[in-house]
């Protein structure tokens, strides 16, 4: 997520397509490299760093562009867009579980990489910034550190992010430890993502 600090500067300067193409290239390349990994340090470079950097670039762009097209109901529009990650979180675990069994790890990850490539190419083609003057802002604006409300929000959000994703990584392992069968352990991850659909729409609707 730290890469979002630098991505914001490029977005303000009007380089959306550069962000999208760079993020897409990093994510897809990282996934293909992940399919070849056999050691921990290789996974760290391919999945952790390469895919992580790409996700940081794409994550900012997807959130920042949508509100530019709405003068009203901005939050619900953002919430609807965010449901895409929930839908992917429902489908992908089940899909990957089946692919791991039928094709093995390398080709299962390559299939996912091709799917990601197709979706991201569509994003690169259709996503555009609304016409506006390019703004060359400071890379880091320290004036925000004096805004108490903003800093309180940042602190609260950091604490939330540090904990909210933990169950998604460990729920399957924990379920297996409790004796739940493999298939059901996989479905638990999809069930968790399905429940997040409500959380992505409801609060945003109330915010508007």
Automatic annotation (TrEMBL):
GO CC entries: membrane
Q: Provide this UniProt record's keywords sorted from A to Z.
A: Membrane, Transmembrane, Transmembrane helix
Instruction: List the subcellular locations.
Output: Membrane
Report the SUPFAM superfamilies cross-referenced here. Answer: MFS general substrate transporter
Q: Which domain of life is it from?
A: Eukaryota
Q: Where is the signal peptide?
A: none
| Pfam families found in the cross-reference section | MFS_1
Molecular functions per Gene Ontology? transmembrane transporter activity
InterPro entries documented for this protein = MFS, MFS_trans_sf, Proton-linked_MCT
Membrane topology designation: Multi-pass membrane protein
Q: Extract the Gene3D superfamilies matched here.
A: MFS general substrate transporter like domains (1.20.1250.20)
Q: Where does the sequence pass through the membrane? A: 15-36, 43-70, 76-95, 107-129, 149-171
What's this protein's family per the entry? Belongs to the major facilitator superfamily. Monocarboxylate porter (TC 2.A.1.13) family.
* Protein name per its UniProtKB record: MFS general substrate transporter
